[in-house]
Structure prediction request, 472 residues.
Amino acid sequence: MAGDASGAETYTTDEALSRLGFGRFQALLLGFLGTGWVAEAMEVMLLSFVGPSMKEEWGVSGAAEGLITSVVFAGMLLGACVGGLGSDRYGRRAGFLFTAIVSGVPGLLCAFSPNYATLLALRFVVGLGLGASHVLPTWFLEFVPAESRGSWIVVFTCFWTLGTILEALLAWAIMPILGWRWLLALSSTPCFILLIFSSVIPESPRYLCSRGKINEAMLVLERIARMNNKALPPGTVTSEPKRIDDNYDPSVTTVLLMTEDRLDDDTSTKSNSKSIFKAFWSRDLIRSTLLLWLVYFASYFAYYGLVYLISELSSGRSQPKDSSLYINVLVTSFAEFPGLLLAALLVDRIGRKVTMGGMILLCCAFLAPLATQLREDLSIILLFCARSCVMGCFAVLHVYSPEIYPTSCRNTGVGFASIIGRIGSIVAPLTTTALLENHHQKEVVLVMDLALFLAGVACTLFPLETKGREIH
Prediction:
């Protein structure tokens, strides 16, 4: 805590949150925003189940079936940009409402699509909403104390895996009896539940401070204090970063302070998209931004490449035709939990950079033997271990990427990194499918390992370690 020019005591948002701890308020917020993450995962996963039935009902080609997934990813590219800029300019709540409404309403309307063209258009709009879903973990992160921020964001990431499991179970129960339209309708239900209770969650106090709304930020912090049965520090919250940091390299701390100071006068007063965009391209952030893009691209590329490899090697497994798809999705989704658990244990102990780089290189190690011909059961085990590691990397990315950007451009920075990641998710199936069709499994593995190795090197080059550090 420090004093302002008038001598009154002040404290930062991080100091307030550290005093209040992780309590009842954050637990309720985790459940609420985690449900949003579940809803987004369900919307992404459902096309794996409805595609074949839709193709059969309307008699469209396999290429037309695949195009439905492609337009969702295309919508995500635009949605990540719009959602990030909107959330930084108008608030985290605005970003949340955008992703919930634009995902939920068109998602429900998809169930009533009279023809293929209508479904295609609606799925593109759903993609716009899904692309802005990175606002959810960022909003949660801004309420969590610094000392446990990493572990709790990894826990938040588990809701995505939970959503894929719930969607597989829902599809298994609904598809054989009621058909694909009912699955589309029921999968959009969580978005509407969130909208009903959306007024309960307050705006981020960090965002309010960055906009000079100190009184409103104080009201939010006082509400958290009441719910957690704790007391705030004496004085008033301030948006000024703490300038004394004995635990970190002073040169690194200075970079953070210079970045925030430069942004305050520009973004807080003008509050326009141009200044927000310029902020994360500033000299102090450009290196981190470009390295982050490389890690996002490689992680998305490897994740979706692994999904296709697992599907290819699992295709010969003897399961009943009507249940094999659901079982495969369930098994591979459960395989993600060990990586998430490992990330949760390490991220607040050894730091973001080491944990992320280690998970990426472990994924490389599990993939490398697949360049040779192995027994099917051994191949599946290695692929599951690799997928677990890449999911752990995703969890740490959800912690680290918002932490390196200041509040004034946080969602914009993460949004543009997500765009690069989505490009990787589009490239992965094209590359993997083309090579596998020509029996080039070795080349598939080498390409993924190369991308992951470069991402692992990038992790060592990040200028900042954010473990336990205040974010501004």
